[in-house]
Amino acid sequence: MNKEVAPQMVCIVGTGDFGSSFGKRLLRSGLAVVFGSRNPKRVSNRLPEGAQVLSVRQAVAACDIVVLAVRQQHQAALEGQLSSVINGKILVDVSNTEKTPVQGSMPNTSQLHMLYPQTSIVKAFNMISAWSLQAGLDDACKKVFVCADDVNAKRKVMELAWIMGLEAVDKGSLANAKELEEYTHQLFPQWRIPMRVTLGLLLVFYIYTIIQDVLFSYFEHGMDRSFRLAISLPNKAIPSVALTLLSLVYLPGTLAAYIQLRRGTKYSTFPPWLHNWLLVRKQLGLAMFGCAGVHVIISLAIPLRVYVYWKWVLSIKQQIDGNWTTTYTSIDFWQRDLYLIFGILGFSILVLLAITSLPSVVNSLSWREFHFVQSKLGWLSLLLCTAHTICYGRLRFLRPESYHWGIPPLYIPALMLPCITISLKLPLLLPFLNRELRMIRQGWTRSRPRAEIEMFHS
Amino acid sequence: MNKEVAPQMVCIVGTGDFGSSFGKRLLRSGLAVVFGSRNPKRVSNRLPEGAQVLSVRQAVAACDIVVLAVRQQHQAALEGQLSSVINGKILVDVSNTEKTPVQGSMPNTSQLHMLYPQTSIVKAFNMISAWSLQAGLDDACKKVFVCADDVNAKRKVMELAWIMGLEAVDKGSLANAKELEEYTHQLFPQWRIPMRVTLGLLLVFYIYTIIQDVLFSYFEHGMDRSFRLAISLPNKAIPSVALTLLSLVYLPGTLAAYIQLRRGTKYSTFPPWLHNWLLVRKQLGLAMFGCAGVHVIISLAIPLRVYVYWKWVLSIKQQIDGNWTTTYTSIDFWQRDLYLIFGILGFSILVLLAITSLPSVVNSLSWREFHFVQSKLGWLSLLLCTAHTICYGRLRFLRPESYHWGIPPLYIPALMLPCITISLKLPLLLPFLNRELRMIRQGWTRSRPRAEIEMFHS
Amino acid sequence: MNKEVAPQMVCIVGTGDFGSSFGKRLLRSGLAVVFGSRNPKRVSNRLPEGAQVLSVRQAVAACDIVVLAVRQQHQAALEGQLSSVINGKILVDVSNTEKTPVQGSMPNTSQLHMLYPQTSIVKAFNMISAWSLQAGLDDACKKVFVCADDVNAKRKVMELAWIMGLEAVDKGSLANAKELEEYTHQLFPQWRIPMRVTLGLLLVFYIYTIIQDVLFSYFEHGMDRSFRLAISLPNKAIPSVALTLLSLVYLPGTLAAYIQLRRGTKYSTFPPWLHNWLLVRKQLGLAMFGCAGVHVIISLAIPLRVYVYWKWVLSIKQQIDGNWTTTYTSIDFWQRDLYLIFGILGFSILVLLAITSLPSVVNSLSWREFHFVQSKLGWLSLLLCTAHTICYGRLRFLRPESYHWGIPPLYIPALMLPCITISLKLPLLLPFLNRELRMIRQGWTRSRPRAEIEMFHS
């Protein structure tokens, strides 16, 4: 075989858990590996077969790419062995900040840069676990975020990641290293605010309905309806939260449209609260979908409840004993059926929206298709779910007995935000506003001379 | 640091929305950017920091790759500034056709080729939106379709896309440029026919059942059953559409098998209608799954309907007043339960099929596994759903009172296509036909001498 | 245009189905293709336009990469034409083992290596079907597993795959070729054991409940309750299987923790049965989710059953005839509602777990996030589903009439494994055990001196 070119050799400094897994992976991908150890003779039997073990100086000298798989607090101790021999090499820093990151602390890459100023430092692989490197990558995150100031060094490390079967993602210059190092300490950082909003709303609506329903019955009529805490009241609070969250998804875009219309340009930044709100719409939408799904399952399980069965039997017995029949008009049937079908259709569209939020589906849609589904169909589902809630409540809000201690039934506050959102959206559909908004979003600016704007991309 | 190689520099002609977003992205990925502007001194403050701004001639002269981010109608005006200096460079055309494309019109790349015949023109990035370039690519389509006649230029632009964190997809030569330019104007082009078929069937079956049910009751018995329009009748029409669509998914493959068997080869093209039908099977299947899902939710919501409750109460009261009881035999229980379990199992398999249609799941299955799920399990679900419908209808079609104005109940026409499809499939399972079909599909041809066919890939 | 470099040329030996599809794809991607045929003059009209056809010797001599698209049994016949001219070239072997693989047989690449020892052999493309190469790759597996001993040759073939729009995956050296060749013969190999476990459990629990319910009624009371075989009994067996599978997902990790704690290190391999068990947790979890989903649909469909309706009517009539009413206390309502809500919440979390098992979602989660969802939320759902089952059974197991022929109701054996799993987990939550376990999993070893362990990656 014409193996005229020897396989590329990578140096790994550190023979711990991560280092040895990393080496095993490199060897599997056909590269040569040399470990740099402080004590090459007394070396762990965990190191993969086929790898060389040398002293740190020898190992580093033999390779162009050096992976530093040593705990942060021990990196300084290596300085004597690395300095000068590391000059001109690519030093890959795989470390994470340990424990919770301290505000203002320096990222590890900066410390390395001060120790070895003649070295191209690349931050990479810090989010890959030793376990997934060993066990195979089928069920693990394959993304390797890479950042570096030296573009060529970065490209070489990204290529290394690809060869290892990982997915390199360019994260720009070393200025982003701190963000990468802290990444592993964060659990769903982009979910923090949406989760708080969702849980807060759940709590508020749940307490609201406890007061309105259970406490009122207990104090005014002496009835113990506490068993309603398990299913009946959650099934009031959860759909109310879902509807409110759904309107919170579409409200910020509507507010942004008014700001753009007023300023006559899209090239001015939104106020921070609106900017951040726009960025969490996807998370709000998914939380909403979770609530809507639980509401659907609970609602479909209603006939399985003993309480419901008991109420039915009671009602039938009363009708037979009293020799009367509850009469329903065709309008009653219509109302109830419309209420159900609005909810079912609204939820079906939400399922569609959720499916098109899956990363692999997003990536198979064109930008225009994604926008159509998430915007047009999203608004349609907001309309349907609002109609579902209105049909549920009907004219009950007019009857005085619906008000307990003066508190209206929960569907009234639940309808507030959706109605506001829809009311704000309607004027934007007026042809002249709609046209101006579309032009602004294509880059047109009201105040600029017409000549210059022509150089934009449609 | 050994930055012996300066980062690659890319020229962007045009300082509009797309150009500046594109430049920002390039800078983030560690490349150098120079903007070519008609008026470099009076330049927008929207341009990203760190980018140079020069005259168009100077900017183009400095780089090998030139991105033309100028509206189509203004490209001609640049000719004087670009000609000669652009020779030998790679010109990236990011433009889209504006408005609806005109039949027979020339793609933009062809016009550029006439203007600059000495330039390697590459069509790319036209499907990426300025917004997603700026806002981050996590939730956007990352696919960049690239086409060019010059393979080396194409490869360089594809590499540029990868460096930017995008996903380059090779779309062949510039002959495909027009298709790419028109792509953004199309909304789910591959869904056009399946959607029409689905909506058409829904309409036909809905009207059919309105006539058979509501109009018949009204005109013959004077009963107003119009409230059935909301849920009862949709829940007849929708499952009928689902069953018909499911058979439309498996019918074309069966027809194709007969054609292949008759011709004795797979190397002859199918008639166009069959070819196109085969290509939309996935879309038909997904539309079917949507209908099946809505049918399931509506069916499970039936006990929540006031009308159903009212009918139950009425029936119980009649039984008590008349002192009789509807008697059910074990066979009645069996029939109803089989009807339910067939439907539930059929739908469960459909859910499995839908999950294995997700792009990321498809990509983790081998070809044989995908075929097993979509073909074997698909036929099984067709059988189960047909059995579900037959159990639903039972022998009702024999009773004269089921025919309103001579029109049979909807389940009869809904069963037509599935029964035809299954009947056509059965003969293909005969061992000798099955064996010949398998050989044909592996490349064997009945008429060719045996010697030559042996050179194929199993 | 500056086409100074001619497009790369690839040689395809063999003009069959796969070869011609492969050539078509290469041409579409802008490469040049030359077919090597034993009879270049009498060549099939199926070969793509634009490709050259030469004799095998001429074709091979003209290219650096040679794709051998000839059936395995005819490869030997080509030796005379290939030998010497193939020396120093890259020979891509796309073949699969035909029929079921024989234990100990040599992979095709080894045979090729013996025939052409001077050639760099690369195994690739054997899992891509001719059909998907032709029809477009949107809905097919794009993964190309590549293995080779010559790293440079491998890299060139991987690059070729990328250019063709496929996704190359490095599978190491030629030692893995046999595995690749046999891959296409396997249908979900990693599912074999989990499927058997699931189906076995289903069978056992189904038979158990047939004996406990139908046979007992028949032989002891002479009642024919066979109709319960369709829905009632499956809806007992299926959730029992789901609960057992759920505990089988979390039991092996708990056992592994005890082994690690006892050994004081994570660097010793687990016994094979535990190792294999740990590897199929994902499959067990998905099978569990399927069972849980079917259980939910069946349960929600219960009110649609005629049998249930008939029982209700009967009960109401009895109450009216006897002039008594089943009385329910608030505690009855509580129990039944808690039973439902535990099940609904447990299932909702399972849905979340299933979604985060999708390949594209996994890839967008960090390792810590994935672990949080699959471990923390998974245990929560195990607790909820166990509580759901306990609430379902309540104190029935204390009543003698629940035991038929001495056999307890099914929920008792179904609760066995979950209760064992939870009991084993609880001690691990003790702070001192938990801390030691976490240290061990970070690489700490009880017996090793402290100095050496410090060199590991956190």
Write up this protein.
3 copies of one chain form a homotrimer. Chain A has 458 residues and is an alpha/beta fold. Chain A is built from 19 helices and 8 strands. An 8-stranded mixed sheet of chain A has the order 3-2-1-4-5-6-7-8, with helices on both faces. In chain A, helix 10 (234-263) runs antiparallel to helix 12 (281-300) and helix 14 (330-355) packs antiparallel against helix 16 (367-393). Chains in contact: A-B, A-C, B-C.
Outline of this structure?
Chain A is an alpha/beta fold. Helices cover about 55% and strands about 10% of the residues of chain A. Chain A has an eight-stranded mixed beta sheet, sandwiched between helices.
List the keywords:
homotrimer, 458 residues, alpha/beta, Rossmann fold, 2 domains, eight-stranded mixed sheet
Largest interface: A-B, 72 and 79 residues
Q: In sequence order, what are the helices and strands of chain A, one letter per element?
A: EHEEHEHHEHEHEHEHHHHHHHHHHHH
The termini of chain A sit apart by 54 Å
Instruction: Summarize the main sheet of chain A.
Output: 8 strands, mixed
Number of helices of chain A: 19
Counted up, domains of chain A total 2
Helix content of chain A: 55-70%
Residue-averaged pLDDT of chain A: 84
By secondary-structure content and strand pairing, the structural class of chain A works out as alpha/beta
Chain oligomer state: homotrimer
**For the largest beta sheet of chain A, what order do the strands appear in spatially?**
3-2-1-4-5-6-7-8
Low-confidence stretches of chain A: 1-5, 449-458
Outline type of chain A: elongated
